[in-house]
Design goal:
This protein is α/β, with parallel strands linked by helices and 332 residues long. The chain has twelve helices and twelve strands. The protein has an eight-stranded parallel sheet. Strands 1-2 form a two-stranded antiparallel sheet.
Amino acid sequence: MQKRELGRGGPLVSSVGIGGMSFSNFYGATTKEDSFAVMRAALDLGIDHIDTANIYGGGRSEEVIGEFLRDLDGPNPFKIATKAAISKDPETGDRRIDNSPAHLEAELDKSLKRLGVERVDLFYIHRRDPAIPIEDVTETLSGFVRAGKIAAFGFSEIAPSSLRRAQAVHPVAAVQSEYSLATRTPEIGLVQSCEELGAALVAYCPVGRGLLTDTPPSFDKAMTLAFMKSNPRFSKDNLAANLQLIDKFRAVAAELGVSAAGLAIAWLLRRGPHVIPIPGTRSAEHLRELASGAALELSDADLALIDRSLPIGWAHGDRYSDAQWLGPERYA
């Protein structure tokens, strides 16, 4: 497995990581044994970067990772990233965003306990609170570095302008953003700004929530999942249109002799040496399929063929509903 820097001067990690949201039943029921199998497969494949968050299953994802690490015979083999800032109002149950120092430190301490580690390699602000200047949040995070609780920090779903403001205070190791052949907004400034400033661009949902695979979700399957049920891209008409369009991409993958998922990962890795996809899966077999993309050598002709099959803007439906847009910064 190739290695890439997790931020300029940061540790080298596998070019493909794994997202821990799938360990929390978000995309369907799973078990601890399934999650353990995925992590064992990751290590066999040379994958050593794992990404989670305090809210994934109410801490369940972190707990499962922590249990796996405790069962290992030897030191922690993973570079671990986790996140905080999203919570629920205890009275209304509404989602809220909190970037206050007290909240972030309290949640970080809980994450460290669940993971069973004294320090995480990367700590993200999961979503920005517009009421608190990003410079102030960056100062809070730099304090966690000095305290030895985190090795580095990043931000999830921020605008390039926000990255520059934060970078002026302290080096930002990574920006996490949804990025795939189905969601190419990062190409209008974020990909370039991360490369210029030395931040890794960690791409979540790199196979478009299953769309860019050989077994994309059906409408009936999507309607069993709370997130997809309310997501515009998976409404009945939009999904039907999207499934028809991705047939062209799947045909390209077949022509190249690879899986659609592997090709989607390989395409992302060609977007820049600082791009690190973190696909999530409940299946060790599917992880091996995803990781195969790291070994693909795509030519310029291959990239042109992919772009013709799925030109920019092909997807029907916004990537988020109005409610799901709470937190991500729009910059175009």
